[in-house]
């Protein structure tokens, strides 16, 4: 009899039943189980988010699937426990699976809100003030996206319709229609120099940690705007606050933070020019994510290479 493939699943908060039945429906040849402490029975694949180290210790899986786009937490765990977590197991992440549209929505909401000065009108409304405000010239309202990967490119595409000048910054060179592309550390300041809005869609790696610091913020034009849709580890929050307080930054919208949940006494909560969301810019949509993971497992079983393989050396 053919051996059934075995899948273990773990997520600290998602509905396990939805995933167990959803994956089983898509992969009738598989046995999928919720991993629980003490379970060291064999498994071919693991589907995880924030797994305890014991779940993956010593396992030689055919594939490890992250239930998200970013794999910084998993890679960090691996760096901390190299003796327990094998770096030989192929690691896959979610590419888009409905997250790109969510990022487009968030980015367009912020960009248009800042361009059309809706926060200023809200303040005027509170003061019962009837005063039309001038708009910046459209062709000077440059928007720069840090990262030109799956999500960065998709956000840039969605911004094309408004006619703002667009820029991106990535590690390797890119050619994107209608986008002025910069790459590499040496080009960062040139990229920043013209940006009225900077949107962060970089992965968290040792190279991008603390990237958004006083030096970075000084390189922007006075009164620029910052949107972080990526990871809090990119930002030196004290430098961000100082830039907001001095007016160097006119406003920031932040979905991610150094510490999550953001502590109740953090100054960012009360800042008049800061918008906060609780790491919900683009959530994992179970149906799309299960489709992608099940299809990837089927491809691996056939000896094919599915998309989304993480390059551990690069860190994303
Ligand atoms: P991706 O496809 O891997 O794209 C990453 C981009 O960043 C690539 O263009 C890459 O350059 C660039 N990059 C990486 N390191 C760089 C460096 N040192 N300097 C310059 N550019 C660098 O990732 P994605 O799917 O677009 O996702 C991006 C991130 O969004 C994820 O890693 C995750 O942290 C975050 N995210 C957040 C949420 C949320 O709800 N807040 C949801 C989903 C994802 P190359 O193209 O040259 O390699
Ligand atoms: C969420 O932050 C993700 O990386 O999917």
Describe the structure.
With 316 residues, this protein is α/β, with parallel strands linked by helices. The protein has 10 helices and 12 strands. The strands form 2 sheets. A 7-stranded parallel sheet has the order 8-7-6-9-10-11-12. Helix 8 (214-218) links the parallel strand 9 (197-200) and strand 10. Helix 4 crosses helix 6. The longest helix is centred in the middle third of the chain and has 17 residues, at 99-115. The chain binds NADP nicotinamide-adenine-dinucleotide phosphate and glyoxylic acid (GLV). Glyoxylic acid binds at residues 68-70, 284. NADP nicotinamide-adenine-dinucleotide phosphate binds next to helix 6 and strand 7.
- Which ranges are low-confidence, i.e. pLDDT below 50, for 5 or more consecutive residues? none
Number of distinct helices = 10
Shape, per Cα inertia axes: elongated
- Order of strands, main sheet, comes to 8-7-6-9-10-11-12
What does the oligomeric state look like here?
single chain
Total number of beta strands? 12
Give the averaged pLDDT, no decimals.
97
Radius of gyration: 22 Å
SSE succession = EHEEHEHEHHEHEEHEHEHEEH
Beta content comes to: 15-25%
What class, by secondary structure content?
A: alpha/beta
- Give the proportion of residues in helices: 25-40%
- Span of the ends, CA to CA: 39 Å
Bound molecules: NADP nicotinamide-adenine-dinucleotide phosphate, glyoxylic acid
- Main sheet overview: 7 strands, parallel
């Amino acid at each position: 009899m053919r051996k059934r493939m075995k899948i273990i699943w773990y997520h600290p908060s998602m509905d396990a039943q939805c995933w167990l039945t959803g994956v089983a429906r898509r992969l009738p040849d598989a046995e999928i189980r919720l991993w629980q402490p003490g379970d060291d029975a064999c498994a071919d694949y693991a589907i995880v988010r924030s797994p305890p180290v014991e779940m993956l210790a010593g396992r030689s899986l055919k594939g490890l699937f992250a239930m998200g786009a970013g794999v910084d937490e998993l890679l960090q765990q691996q760096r901390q426990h190299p003796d327990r977590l094998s770096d030989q197991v192929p690691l896959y992440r979610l590419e888009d699976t409905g997250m790109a549209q969510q990022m487009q929505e968030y980015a367009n909401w912020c960009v248009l809100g800042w361009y059309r000065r809706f926060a200023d009108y809200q303040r005027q409304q509170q003061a019962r003030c009837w005063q039309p405000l001038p708009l910046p010239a459209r062709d000077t309202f440059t928007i720069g996206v840090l990262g030109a990967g799956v999500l960065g490119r998709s956000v840039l595409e969605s911004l094309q319709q408004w006619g703002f000048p667009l820029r991106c910054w990535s590690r390797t060179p890119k050619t994107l229609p209608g986008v002025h592309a910069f790459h590499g550390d040496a080009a960062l300041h040139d990229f920043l120099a013209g940006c009225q809005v900077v949107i962060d869609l970089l992965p968290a790696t040792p190279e991008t940690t603390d990237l958004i610091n006083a030096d970075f913020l000084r390189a922007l034009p006075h009164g620029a705007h910052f949107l972080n849709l990526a990871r809090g580890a990119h930002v030196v929050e004290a430098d961000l606050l100082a830039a907001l307080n001095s007016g160097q930054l006119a406003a920031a919208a932040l979905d991610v933070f150094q510490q999550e949940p953001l502590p109740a006494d953090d100054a960012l909560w009360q800042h008049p020019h800061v918008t906060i969301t609780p790491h919900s810019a683009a959530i994992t949509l179970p149906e799309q994510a299960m489709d992608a993971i099940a299809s990837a497992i089927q491809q691996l079983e056939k000896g094919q290479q599915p998309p989304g393989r993480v390059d551990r050396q690069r860190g994303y």
